[in-house]
Amino acid sequence: MKRWQIILFAAIATVAIAIGAGYRLGAKLLQEQIVEALGPGSHIGTLKINWFSVELLGLTIDAPKGWPAARTLEAERIVITPNLRTLFSDRMEISSIIIEKPYLSMLRTPGKMRFVPSLTEIGQGKKNNGSTRAVAIATIELKDGRLDLYDATVQRPPLKVRMERIAARIRDVTAPAQARTQFEITGIVKGVRRDGQAQLSGWIAPGGRDSSSRIALVGADMVALQPYLVKKNDTPVSQGTIDLNLNSEVRNKILDGKGKVVLKDLEFASGRGFFDTFMGLPRTAVIGFLKDHNNAIDVDFTLAGDTDNPNFSLNESLSTRVAVGMAGQLGIGIGNVAKGIGSLGRKGVEGAGSLVDGVGSAIKGLFSGKR
User: Fold this and answer.
1) Rg for the chain, CA atoms, rounded
2) Which ranges of 50-143 would DSSP assign to H, the alpha helix?
3) The overall pTM is greater than 0.70
4) Are the beta carbons of 360 and 121 closer than 8 angstroms?
5) What DSSP character marks residue 236?
6) Is the bond into 64 cis (omega within 30 degrees of 0)?
7) Pairing state between β 211-221 and 196-204
8) Is residue 232 helix, strand or coil?
9) 308: closest CA among 271, 236, 254?
10) Cα–Cα distance between 275 and 331 in angstroms, integer?
11) Which of 48, 156, 169, 299 is the most buried (most CB within 10 A)?
């Protein structure tokens, strides 16, 4: 080998080692920030530092006292790929976060959707610690996930709704929020009699004032989901399915939603008498309609109003709209039931606003080095 070739080879090797050492140092700093941000109750089986990424294996976060599940978060493997050149800048950029086989428990209470409170709620209400560092994540991807949603807005103890085989892609996540966050989520909704399919897609603008979403349920188990439609004194459903399609647009906190519900193959538990009801309607009329219409009820409905109105519940709005639509098909004049229920309030959009705020809080804590 000629002398100049030896010198060139040595120079390239030196540069490669220097670049590698820089990435390793940056990854180490990121590792320390993540470990600190996870906080009490968190456990990591193994943390690996690769050339261009950080891997967390066997992550678990214990639930706080009073939480309906033992864990708030679990993940078999998380791969974080940062742009290490931005670690020392005012804006950290993360190319991707891939989460394999995650488990998440969420708690829905009036006006709020809570998840991983150790990350999303610690420090709320405290003064700003002076950190102005921004974080931008190009893509968050979930593979083969599980979700337990505990919904305290429909019953006590909270109703548990489980989703499995969740695949999700979330793009353009920033803290503080600067751009539209786009999302695509699919999964299986577990039921008592059968499982259904769910799809959710759309975007949410910074501050939650504008959003667009598409929600679809196909073949979901009516027995498992009936608390959202069936009132306490109604005759419960023992069998049946529900299909739901809902398109909603929010502009400057004004909601315009249009949807369709199809109830199929409904069967009811033993009734108490002639005056038994289903969704506030005479059960005998519902059964008669089903027999005459291929055992299905197809209802169009709308949701509209000011999302700043705090005195409205999404559950009540949806069940009332569907009941009114059914009454129209059954020829029962209860149109006045819906009078004065033209606005969907803050309690009805907690799945967007509080969820985005929580994600932003978690991002800031994980990647800013501050809690």
Assistant:
1) 25
2) 117-120
3) yes
4) no
5) P
6) no
7) antiparallel
8) coil
9) 254
10) 17
11) 299
